[in-house]
Amino acid sequence: MTVSVATRVIPGQGPACESNFTVSFYIPAEHSANPPAPSDSNVFFSTIPAHRAYVKSFGGFASQDDWIQAGAELGRALDASHPYDSSYHYTAGYDSPFTIFNRHNEVWFVAN
Fold first, then answer.
1. From the CB of residue 69, how many other CB atoms can be counted at a distance below 10 Å?
2. Whole-model pTM?
3. 5-14+34-110 sits in which CATH class?
4. What percent of the chain has pLDDT over 90?
5. Care to name a GO molecular-function term for this sequence (predicted)?
């Protein structure tokens, strides 16, 4: 894989609320005019708009704790001069599940 599988995460409010996850797969330009129709009503087409983002990269097979740690590190690295939308963020993985070494993962905070 050379493009990411991006997941938009809207954190749940409070200790018992679950976060909302929307997983996005890239459709190459040559297939975007006439993509196959989804067979499940929970699958839909959308576009992630062009944006600027602050990014924290890390390697390995990412666990939930790894994503949380990378997001926390990114948040600590940013100050008031780097505003971002804190209501959601993206996680991105770039590797096939069969890739064992040199994996690439990212957390994105969308800049305001």
1. 15
2. 0.87
3. alpha beta
4. 71
5. heme binding
